[in-house]
Amino acid sequence: MWNYPIQEKLEDELVHKFSKYTKIAGVVFLILGVVGILYPSLMTLATVTFISWIMLFAGLMAGYFTYLSDKDDHIGWLKSFILIGISLFMILYPMSGIGTIGLLLSIYFFIDAFASFSMSITMKPSKGWIIWLINGIFSLALGVLFILGWPLTSVYLIGLFVGFSLFFDGVSLLTIGSIFKKMSN
Fold first, then answer.
1. 20 to 30 Å CA-CA from 93: which of 20, 101, 141, 182?
2. Based on the number of CB atoms within 10 Å of its own CB, is 126 exposed (0-12), middle (13-18) or buried (19 or more)?
3. Running DSSP on this structure, what letter comes out for residue 185?
4. Global pTM?
5. Taking a C-beta distance cutoff of 8 angstroms, is the pair 137, 109 a contact?
6. At what angle are helices 129-148 and 154-184 packed, to 10 degrees?
7. Is 162 exposed, middle or buried, given 0-12, 13-18 or 19+ CB atoms closer than 10 A?
8. Helix, strand and coil in the chain, % to nearest 5
9. Cα separation of 24 and 108, whole Å?
10. From the centroid of its chain, how far is CA 7?
């Protein structure tokens, strides 16, 4: 049924293309990450703008599908108007959006710290419990960093975190691309 040499050739081509495109994406992510680390305020503004436009698109799509499926669905229209309203507010007043996203991130880090501390206590004396404790301490520290100077710290912390995340994503993609290139050779 399957001709093995053709399948092997297709797999080699796929691995080669995957390697090529992950390297390209990795370089782009590295560049964006460095920009975010060097200019965190710019990356914060870009992140909030990106999130705002996604929310606007989601609100428009929610309204469109509510219109198509059930014009009398008040909850569907409410969801659509809330998404559109919040997104327009964040687009027109980005500092408010930055403060909101910063507050949401601090809440996330506090919840993550609580979960990590709970996991650490549950796992103790088993192997690996200390990793959960360290993760909890770091999450707590990040939450405190965000909340101490909120909303002003959000201006640079969001961009800095996004920049670091993009940088390490780029490193990961370049590494995976190199591994796949070795596999294709």
1. 141
2. exposed
3. -
4. 0.71
5. no
6. 140
7. buried
8. 90, 0, 10
9. 32
10. 36
The encoded tokens of residue 157 equal: 């912390």
Residues in the chain: 185
Please count the helices (runs of H) and the strands (runs of E) in the chain: 6, 0
Give the whole-angstrom CA distance, residue 130 versus residue 91.
Answer: 43
- State both tokens at 31: 């560049």
pLDDT in tens for each of the 185 residues of the chain? 445 454 455 477 777 788 888 889 999 999 999 999 999 999 999 999 999 999 999 999 999 999 999 888 889 899 999 999 999 999 999 988 898 888 888 898 899 899 989 988 988 887 778 888 888 898 898 889 888 888 888 888 888 888 888 888 888 888 888 877 776 66
